[in-house]
Design goal:
The chain is elongated, with a radius of gyration of 19 Å. The C terminus is likely disordered. The chain has eight helices and two strands; from the N terminus they run H-H-H-E-E-H-H-H-H-H. The chain is mainly α.
């Protein structure tokens, strides 16, 4: 099972918003911390905003923050939004299936069970959980952030 980088950075954006709450997080900060392009983060933030996970504030001093308490944002739900259907193998999707073993294949059934178990773990995880070790996380990202005061004086 492999999730896309899009999902990974959606989680990182939500995690950073939880760490910085109630402050706004700037898209530039996420891009710098995770070494990503600004347009990539903008797309992620826009989608998470449309889905009701982030509140976005436009303008020069804009940014984003969590739209809901972090304990109410389930990681599995976000994965389903960012990944879409988790058709790990072709036979998971009856419309596209060409396998003649569909319905009788033990391997397919076990892969479905494994995918369900994977999602069950993510359904038991919240953004609050992935931001719980706030001190350690903030210490690790601090050197990667551009201090706002320093940036303003340059």
């Amino acid at each position: 099972m492999k999730l896309t980088s899009y999902t990974n950075y959606a989680m990182r954006s939500l995690q950073l918003a939880a760490l910085k709450a109630p402050e706004l997080v700037r898209i530039d900060d996420v891009a710098k911390i995770h070494n990503l392009s600004r347009p990539h983060i903008m797309k992620i933030v826009h989608e998470l905003g449309k889905a009701g996970y982030l509140e976005t504030v436009r303008g020069r001093s804009g940014g984003f923050r969590l739209a809901r308490p972090p304990e109410d944002i389930i990681v599995g739900e976000v994965v389903r939004i960012t990944e879409g259907p988790l058709d790990v193998v072709e036979c998971f999707n009856p419309e596209k299936n060409t396998c003649p073993l569909m319905g009788i294949c033990v391997l397919s059934k076990k892969i479905q069970e494994a995918t369900a178990a994977f999602m069950a773990v993510l359904d038991d995880l919240t953004i609050a959980d992935i931001a719980a070790n706030r001190g350690q996380l903030m210490e690790r990202i601090a050197p990667l952030e551009t201090p706002r005061l320093e940036k303003a004086t340059q």
